[in-house]
Amino acid sequence: MCPMPSAESTPASVHEPEPVRPTREDAVAAAGSELIGGPVGRRALPGTSWWTPVRVIALVAIGMFALGLVQKAPCYNGAWFFGASSQYTHACYSDIPHLYQGRGFADGLVPYFDKISGDMEYLEYPVLTGLFMEVASWLTPGSGSPQDQAQWYWMANAGMLMVCAAVIAVCVTRTHGRRPWDGLLVALAPAFALTATINWDLLAVALTAAAMLMWARSRPLAAGILLGLATAAKLYPFLLLGPLLVLCWRAGKWREFGKALIGAAGAWLVVNVPVMLFAFDGWSKFYTFSQERGVDFGSFWLIIAQNTADPLSTDTVNTLALVLMVLCCGGIAALALAAPRRPRFAQLAFLIIAAFVLTNKVYSPQYVLWLVPLAALARPKWRDFLVWQACEVAYFLGIWLYLAYTTSGDAHKGLPTEGYHWAIGVHLLGTLYLCVVVVRDILMPERDPVRRTGGDDPSGGVLDDAPDVFVLGPVARSSPRASSADGAAAGPQVEWGADRAGGGSS
């Protein structure tokens, strides 16, 4: 009779939980897998092939990005320059070639320091994005016609943005260790491929995805530094500090939040202060432009403005949008502190950015890139993800058809104003739908696809399995895997709510 192997002789891989395979738990993923041979068999051996999830997903992301480049081919062949409406009817518009000349890169002007011709005066992008744009101009050949140079500039940016797309897919794949295949949601997202080269948003999205990976690896300082760099590329990433604040408050992880906050502030200052000191007018252009910009495409504010005889002023819209965003932040914070189980970081991150998208006075089609990796981590269910993506693709087509309608003169080829309003409504409803299912998962954690397959918060880092020390309302149950020793170390749990002994709150 063979002796049982001892713990020392048992391979470590035996004790490691098996990665979650979506084709076994997700009916839509299983049905989709029939295109490549069907779901993985129960006798398949994980980790025995070169085709690891990270490599597969990175290659798929690059392939989908390449398909997005092909979709822009009609514009690359001349529609950007010789046909105002054809770049909209072909849905291949991009800011990149237009701003090569419009923001002085073709003339060798230094962003923020040199004035540009026209009303804009200075580049209206954050500093790190401006650096990204400048590096691409260095890679652009200086010979040829202005159109040729703009095309090469777009291609140089596309190559750099492709690297960002691969980084995003890899970071999402690695963030949830037991669920690597959730990264396919990012890699195969149609709206991701369609909007990737409209603007430079992928730089901030890549830095944000890397920050979330570092937080998941319990490296709060590195996460904060990357989050600060992301904010130096686009404004929205700083909002993720809000979910971290309330989650660390509930778990009593103030030291870790402090490291993240210091890292974020320090990184942002290192990037911005030199430009702020020596070119303040150019540096501040992004912030003044964001404040002075009127109601624009994609927002419900535009629907109101185009159906009102006396539209609200820009200052009034700014104030109302800020009030709505503050209310959303308060609601998300209350949800985080009063939920029956501490929400996952990715869930709150998605909700806070979605709230910003929904209440903002402008929604450019590439803003969907902000939400794609967060949605893949917050609600990794193919049905819900694809419903939302379908709504975003409908909006992507709607805005270009609307612009074709407004630029085609008396021909009126495209989508009229009323039709564009319906496209905006589809985008808003799709995003709200995903918000609703995420909130439902928070209130009913047994329905959360991530927690249902084991684990507490794989993207939470130090928050994963941490006991609660502060809750609002009814007592939230700590993670069932948190040990009593951990609970003792964390200190007593404090509860504020009407059902507390004595009937009051303090």
Automatic annotation (TrEMBL):
Low complexity bias locations: 477-492
Keyword Membrane appears in the UniProt entry: yes
Pfam entry (one): GT87
Compartment(s) of residence: Cell membrane
Biased composition (Basic and acidic residues): 15-24
UniProt keyword list: Cell membrane, Membrane, Transferase, Transmembrane, Transmembrane helix
TM ranges: 50-70, 152-172, 184-215, 221-248, 260-280, 317-339, 345-364, 385-405, 420-443
Disordered, as annotated region: 1-24, 477-506
GO molecular function, one term: hexosyltransferase activity
Membrane-topology annotation of the record: Multi-pass membrane protein
Listed GO CC annotations: plasma membrane
Family membership noted in the UniProt record: Belongs to the glycosyltransferase 87 family.
UniProt-recorded name of the protein: Membrane protein
Protein's organism: Streptomyces cyaneogriseus subsp. noncyanogenus
